[in-house]
Design brief:
The complex is a heterodimer of chains A (240) and B (219).
Chain A (H helix, E strand, L loop, with lengths): L1 E10 L2 E11 L4 E5 L6 H8 L7 E6 L2 E2 L7 H7 E4 L11 H13 L3 H14 L15 H13 L5 E5 L7 H15 L4 E5 L3 H7 L2 E6 L2 E6 L1 H6 L4 H10 L1
Parallel strand pairs in A: 3-8, 3-9, 6-7, 7-8
Antiparallel strand pairs in A: 1-2, 1-4, 4-5, 9-10
Helix pairs in contact in A: 3-4, 3-5, 4-5, 5-6
Chain B lengths: L11 H34 L3 H16 L2 H15 L6 H27 L2 H9 L4 H31 L11 H12 L2 H30 L4
Helix pairs in contact in B: 1-2, 1-4, 1-7, 2-4, 3-4, 4-6, 5-6, 6-8, 7-8
The chains are: A alpha/beta (240), B mainly alpha (219).
């Protein structure tokens, strides 16, 4: 469970998050959408403290990550993250990318980590690529490895920061399929996305952010068929 | 023209023995310089203001004064301050090590800063502790990018090592100078020393290229 209370974030004088509160229940799948510059990514990155909130409180399960006394590294082990730009480690093979953190952070034995790594690679359909370096992979393959890498830590929840925005159109589907299959396992997920069809199909709830505010918090059916706010109506009109 | 290389033939083995001396100085100094360079670079990019200042001042002093002055200070100066005897060899190794550490720290700092920010974020998101992130994720990528600059520094070090001549270390340079004096054949013996230095640099360059090729395999 993730609980967020009056989250604010400023860069200098610019306030990009203007007091957001919401709760993400265990097993829930949240799609975060909104125009660019609305603060969606910043919002997501505050949850595992890649961005330090200016004020407000965030709890991940029992741990208050905004409390400086809480060991954020321990919390991050439970929260997997997938980035727009993949951020695979270029000097490691695909399998090493996946097994590094379990071995070095969790102390898993190399043998067990590789066993689990191969299992995950099979799940994302890249078994034959385990010895390749990331540079030899297509964007869609890279992102699937990145998902496997995050899952290798056996996180309780996953954050996706525009996972398909840097992909060529023909590769979007393969990545979304992997995320969908993950959704079926009951994983708690928060996904910043521009894929409206995907959000509609997979999400339990849609959070619509605009100008640093949480403007709508509704079920996908409700949000896409009858958005309440003028801002959401304008946004949907532009993109659908 | 008065030029006769046969005059120094008998002294060639003597000059060649200087290669070992030069290599011993350069090798150990490079190791010291590299270690200091990494530590200083980490201080410079780290959070601790005190360490950052120390690293900046260190770099500023060692880059801002002549190497030969640093060498002479260590060799002649320290015994005056403390009751210790500094051998010419250790003075040379320390002076070159400290000095190149300053230059190498700047190279490494630039290399670290050039590593994509996404790499740090991915490491943090996985809960990888700072030390391990630096050692296994950031530094390997940084080193790959700065290899040519680093090789440049080692080449400079090899050539600059010739100034140990002034404190009497019998390296290639000193031996060539001695042979020149004994035989009155300065031109021949100095040219011979020049050829040795040049060949050493060429070999270093080739090694650098081979290492670079190996590291670029993942590109």
């Amino acid at each position: 469970m993730i609980k967020i209370q009056d989250l604010r974030k400023s860069y200098g004088k610019v306030e990009v998050l203007k007091g957001i509160s919401t709760t993400i229940q265990k097993g829930e799948i949240i799609a975060i959408i909104g125009p660019s510059g609305s603060g969606k990514s910043t919002f997501l990155r505050c949850i595992n403290l890649l961005e330090t909130p200016t004020s407000g409180h965030i709890w991940v399960n029992e741990a208050e990550v905004t409390n400086p006394k809480v060991n954020i590294m321990k919390v991050r082990e439970q929260v997997g993250m997938v980035f727009q730009q993949f951020n695979l480690f270029p000097h490691m093979t695909v399998l090493e990318n996946i097994t590094y953190a379990p071995i070095m952070v969790k102390g898993t034995s190399k043998k067990d980590a590789e066993l689990r790594g191969r299992e995950l690679l099979k799940k994302v359909g890249l078994s034959e690529k385990e010895s390749e370096h990331p540079v030899r992979l297509s964007g869609g393959q890279k992102q699937r490895v990145a998902i496997a890498r995050a899952l290798a830590m056996s996180p309780e929840m996953m954050l996706f920061d525009e996972p398909t925005s840097a992909l060529d159109p023909e590769m979007v589907k393969e990545v979304l399929e992997v995320i969908k299959s993950l959704a079926l396992t009951g994983m708690t997920m928060a996904i910043v996305t521009h894929e409206m069809g995907f959000a509609r199909e997979v999400a339990d709830r849609v959070l619509f952010l605009d100008d640093g505010q949480l403007v709508e918090d509704a079920s996908p059916t409700e949000f896409f068929s009858s958005p309440k706010s003028k801002r959401a109506q304008d946004f949907l009109e532009k993109i659908l | 023209m008065n030029l006769d290389f046969t005059q120094i033939v008998t002294s060639i083995p003597y000059i060649l023995q200087g290669i070992g001396v030069t290599l011993k100085i350069v090798g150990v100094a490079a190791l010291i310089g590299f270690t200091i360079g990494i530590l200083l670079a980490l201080c410079k990019i780290g959070r601790f203001k005190g360490l950052k200042w120390f690293a900046d001042i260190y770099t500023s002093i060692f880059r801002g004064t002549p190497l030969i002055l640093q060498l002479l200070l260590i060799y002649y100066g320290t015994p005056q301050l403390f009751d210790i005897k500094v051998t010419a060899y250790s003075a040379a190794v320390l002076a070159f090590g400290f000095n190149s550490g300053a230059y190498i720290s700047e190279i490494i700092r630039a290399g670290i800063l050039a590593v994509d920010k996404g790499q740090l974020e991915a490491s943090m998101a996985l809960g990888i502790p700072y030390k391990k992130m630096m050692k296994d994720i950031v530094l390997p990528q940084a080193l790959k990018n700065i290899l040519p600059a680093l090789m440049n520094e080692f080449i400079t070090l090899t050539k600059e090592s010739a100034i140990v001549t002034v404190i009497g270390v019998t390296d290639i340079m000193r031996r060539a100078y001695i042979v020149g004096g004994n035989t009155y054949r300065y031109f021949e013996s100095l040219i011979f020393a020049g050829v040795i230095y040049y060949l050493m640099v060429i070999i270093l360059t080739l090694i650098g290229k081979a290492v670079e090729r190996r590291m670029r395999r993942s590109d």
